[in-house]
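Table 4 source record.
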Amino acid sequence: MYLPGISTPEHPAQRAAQRGYTLLELLLYVTILSALLTTVVFFFGTVTDARVKNQTVLEVNDQGTMLMDYLTQTIRTATSITAPAAGLAGPSLMLTVPTGSLSPTTFNLSGTTLGYGVDAGTNDTSDSGYINATKFVASSTGTISTLYMLTGNTIAASPNNKGQMAIYSGAVSPSALLASSASTTLSASSWNAFAVPPVNVSSGQTYWLAYNTNGLAVADNALRQHAGTTNQSMFVAQAFGTWPASWTGTSQTLEYSLYAQIDSTAAPATMQIKEGATALLALTSSKVRLSGLTFKNLSRGGTLGIVQISFTLSRVNPSNVNAYEYQKTFTTSAELAW
């Protein structure tokens, strides 16, 4: 009841409603809320990354296992090995199989190559302590991550059985080092693989594939070569283990058995099969990239044939997302008519 001249005390609820929030309290509430939101976002981000990583690992492992099972089963039911020859290794496998319409059955990588991926037929000499390089023109645009060279039949004893490879750009001479490999133990009469950091190459541009080795005798660790075009190759004295940024040496009319697989920017390299006259069929999906594919014919007397298989699968990761960074190397052997 209102009485003139007499003030009425405020109810506690009215005072609280009129008081509101101070600036300090408001800032405190905003800080707490931001911290909570940050924690929630970080938690869900971590969970999402872990889920993607698990899917990535599963994708690579599943496709690698499936591919290896298919290869070994096909080899075990084959009747003979056409290529590579006994004692040699190469990036493709050709088999004679019981079903005539499916013979020969060939496995190799998709895409194009830079270089000469065939046995040139003759051993080079005095390769140790020298860089030997051959220039080639890229026929497609893409990425190179493995270089290959074919050795002769004489490999020096350890520790002088090592080789290295590199790739340069340059129209006239190797004028810019793009990537180089670590030292690799060489195998005689085999295609030896050298992993390098990924290199982007462009169609129509000239690149040099180079090799160096630490052998002792003139016949040690030699490249295979044959006649090439004028000034197609070049050599220069260079201590093993180091690569100059650029160099000019002595030109030769030779072509060495050196090559690299170009992984197209439009489609990553995949394993493919061709059975008889049928069309090529991809055995791996576009989600993974296949590299370092090597088939080695380990056949010996008293057997129909043995093939050693090795390849590396990695998850395609064009945006360089850490959760997609994963690769695994698969290796096994299979015997014909097992």
